[in-house]
Amino acid sequence: MARGGVNKAVVQIARNALLARGLHPSIDAVRVELGNTGSKSTIQRYLKELGEAEAPTPEMPLDEELTRYIASLVVRVQQRAEEALAADRAAFDRKQLAARQQREVEAAHLEHLQLAHATLGQARQAGLVHEQTLTSQLQACEVESQRLQEAHEQQLRLLEDRAGQIVSLEDKHRLTQEALDHYREQHLLQREQEVQRHDQQLQQLQREARTNRDQLLSKQEELSQLYRDLERMSGEQLRQHQETRRLEQALQSAQEQVQAADLEHQSDLRQMHAIAHKLTTLREKTKQQLLKQRQTQRELRSQTQQITQLQTLVERLTQSAPTGPD
Coiled coil located at which positions (predicted)? Predict the structure, then answer.
């Protein structure tokens, strides 16, 4: 049985072509003319049938012979055209497959970039939450600092009251000493006891004032630590913003490569434009959030300066407060 594509008409065309070139239509020559296809037994059988058909045939008219030759040429040209068309179709399929694979690679790369962008967005959101927590702690410290400052002022007022009492007692003692000379030693002893007692109270108040001042310094150190934490978070968010910009640039480059690789798929191109628009919106939102964060940092710096000024004022009041009679 002959293989697909090898029949009597094809063998006849190859035989006529060899005869036209002045060559003997042997089995091997015909098989080479057919492109090394078909079995030799099949070609031999067809050549035998063609030879037997042509042997007893009387000489045919020239028109009929030309018609048959032209028909054989038409069949041969049609076969060559079909082979060329099949080769072109196979090449086109290979190109289309390569383009489809390239598009899938670019789509996977785009998906990876989008996932990285989403991860950075989550990290930035966590940073904002941590910043809000630090802000709450700073506010609590400010309230505690205000309470300590009020307690310190109350201690200063108490010291002033004690000093006034000491002055009043000294005046009374002086008047009593002038009026009662015979009780001088007793009143002197009483005065010394009262002075000692008030000195002890004054020392106690001074110790409490130092304790409050140490607590105020501790709170100030905590505020400084919170400020350093805020600065560190700002640096981290700046690095995250720079990484986001780098990923956006890489995403834009990937979009240009996808557009260059697949100009014929307009639907995919519209989706890429939609993704680029979303990324632009996300970039604008990120800029707005960074501006808000910088504004918050400026406000925190201003509040820290105010706290420092208040602490300086408290220290000055503490240094200028009376320490009692000598």
Answer: 166-320
